[in-house]
Batch of 3 targets.
Target 1
Amino acid sequence: MNSKYLIGIIVAIIVIVGAYFALAGSSNQQTIQIAGSTSVQPVAEKLAQAYMQKHPDVKINVQGGGTSVGITSAQQGTADIGTASSKPKDSDAQGLVQTQIAKDGIVVVVNNANKISSLTLNQTKDIFSGNVTDWSKVGDSSGTISVITREDGSGTRDGFQNIVMGGKNGTPILKTAIVQSSTEAILQAVKGDPNAIGYISLASLSGDVKAVTINGVTPSEKTVSDDTYKIVRPFIFLTKGQPTGIVKDFIDFTMSPEGQTIVKQAGAVPMNS
């Protein structure tokens, strides 16, 4: 038999056998779907990466969309775990099991060129309500303030509204504020506008923007953990009923010392802090 022909047959057999085992392996792969808060998303992604390294037969898909998406996805069962960065209303929480995986500070951020480095809670409220419209009213900078906020349904916005603006029946955020649909969009908008102000998750804070102190307190793991920083909200995993199987195992991993270390490395404040 021609040696080239024989080699061709052997290669074909190897390819077929390899494809068979690949397909057999993939058929045994288990998946976890996670969707919701864009603030929780980076933390969930790091947890998922660590878990998949330990469990090669498990695939975890993490998506954003906002807290409202996390709640709805958990309720409807389109996600195994919904993520939220604010506590669901009682009417939305029926049938859902909540696991708080971390605490997070909502950080008020300005452009790096802004001379403002501190605000009081009342000044922040006045800016976001439109009562103060120029930086000269609150510090050494000057210029018309560009207010940037998150969309309705965002857990970050809900947390900010509840803590800074006085709740659902409190002072509304300025109607003409620029609305962005994700933490990253807020970051980019503030980075690109010297007069902008917005709010983001502490877990997503980067050198692209400047965090201001609130009532003289710098947002940090320590000040969020001990509640001296006042704009704090929970990071929550939501499941439809009690979690079971690999979903329960992943949540148990998240709450373990190893998982909580990953939470900290991702920029959130662990529950055992």
Note: The two ends are 71 Å apart (CA to CA).
Target 2
Amino acid sequence: MPPSYPEKLPMYTRFVPFALASVLSLSALAGEAGVKKATTASPKKEVTKQSAPADEASVKKAVEGKLERAVSSVTKTLYLGLYEVYVDGQIVYTDEKVSVLLLGALIDAQTMKNVTDERMQKLTAIKFSDLPLTLAVKQVRGDGKRVFATFEDPNCGYCKKLAKDIVKLDNVTIYTFLYPILSPDSLEKSNQIWCAADKAKAWNDWMVDGKAPTGKGDCDTTAVRKTIETGRKLAINGTPTVFFADGERIPGAVPLARIEQKLSQVQAQGR
């Protein structure tokens, strides 16, 4: 599994049979269409009147019928007449007739901008102050002015890599939500860490140094249960998932340089 993916298959795998994975090179596709039209058009051929574009509501209804999933939003894109459909925490593209479903990154070939990534950042953003931070394991280093939160499973390999990386960060406050979604053992370890006298130490002992928690996990672990509920409400389908103070969400193993860059950016914005 590539490092940019969260440690659990996202929910879109449930409708992959309906989708065509694709990366769209927009100018190339448009060019091919133009060449084909120019070389095959005949002056004697009757021009067929095109049907009016479907609106977002009809596309939404059709996609929900095909996928049997509730669609969160439908937005007409600027590319090839495609509609952006946000469903189950993923973006799918389709045409006005919903004759195809395209799953993958939409790239603007002129700017090489990943349109899908930019839209996902907006669609999955949250209000950071809405996070129930009292349910998280809190770590403060240096002045603690730079703030971010993570949802992590104690048995997640990418989470362990992230934990080792962020040890190098200074002047940060880190809120780690124990999000045991991989196995029953994950829940047991999360409860043990939460019940430790020093939660942050117990977390780092396990995630960074490989020292398994030894507590019984028999204290009030309501916080772990509520974290699971919160994660589901936020459609967090894999670990780690990182939230920054401006609300941006980044799923998967985030490189340390990316975290530093984002923290600096948010700090410059005064958040």
Note: The chain has eight helices and 13 strands.
Target 3
Amino acid sequence: MKTVVVTDSTAYIPQEIRESLNIRMVPLSVVIGNDTYREEIDINAAEFYEKIRNERALPKTSQPSLGIFVETFEELSKEYDAVISIHLSSGISGTLAGAEQAGEMVDNIKVIPFDSEVSCMVQGFYVLRAAEMAQAGAHPDEIMQELNTMKQTVRAYFMVDSLDHLHRGGRLNGIERVIGTMLQVKPVLHFENKVIVPFEKVRTRKKAMKRIADLLQEDANKHANLQATIIHANNENEAITWKNELQPLMPNVHFTISYFGPVIGTHLGEGSMGLGWVKID
């Protein structure tokens, strides 16, 4: 079977990499004032953070329309037998559900949805691996088996400067926000059962980042090789500094740097930092 991989824009995989691995991307959108922008197409991360700096109202985000998914799958059906459609966690977005529904509406191609249960470049880990296997001619069942195996060692933790964005965007409950604000806590967050929840409450940004690094170190001690990504919200210099600090301590970890783009950045806020990893052969 000839297989192609589809993902959404929140994987934040650079265009040149998507093109080299034949990854098709369906964009989510961000609404700033009266203007709607498709992320990674109409607006990039740097432009987004610049635009919202003086905005009082939180931008809104929207998932791809059902029609865009149908159109994408119909186009791919002319050349491919199967699509593996990998998306951000179904607990924070209806994007996966849209892909599933569209897949049932399109003939002549088998659409296989996969819930990454995370987002950003950690979601991208699955996409890149699936695309590499698809290019090598792997059967869709074999690719899905590999993705489910990866899920056992995928980890993602992040911290935000303020819980306000998560609360206002409906991604965190009000009690957590009040407690965090009162105590000036910088909670370490993660995905659990597909939604964002606090992992631990830490008092300072520095301690939160150290705690996340310690969690990576624990897994680096268990596994021969890890792929890790440092994810930043318009604070690339801090991400580079962190990478330079961690790399010598964990020579068996291959680090890259990625970013929180407009849609995820809307919910986390500028200055957020994340670290995700997965075991690799």
Note: DSSP finds eleven helices and 13 strands in the chain.
